[in-house]
Amino acid sequence: MKSGKAGGYDNLTLEHILFSHPSLVIHLCNIFNLMLKHCYVPNEFGRGIIVPLVKDKRGDLFSSSNYRVITASPIISKIFELCLLDRFGYFLSSSDLQLGFKKNIGCSPGIFWCRM
Fold this sequence. Notes:
The protein is of the alpha+beta class. Helix content is about 35%, strand content about 10%. It is built from four helices and two strands.
């Protein structure tokens, strides 16, 4: 994760975690293990702040197609997600036909495949 990013709805940032007391790691580990044991994830982990970003500042600022959105999620839920990916990531796979949002794959294979 990168430092200097905006916090979620709880206003916590990565810096809060990095510069907190070392015992926080133990508490987070216990909470995450309990969540896995009881198959429960708090609803707040799915909450976020949706922020619209302008694609082209010289373009039409009243057109919805000139915007993209990001969601600022709580840092604790991001840490939980990273823990899950580290622990169970090898169980997760996607179809060979999926070209977007895959690690180490750019746009070129999709462009080449579409031209065939």
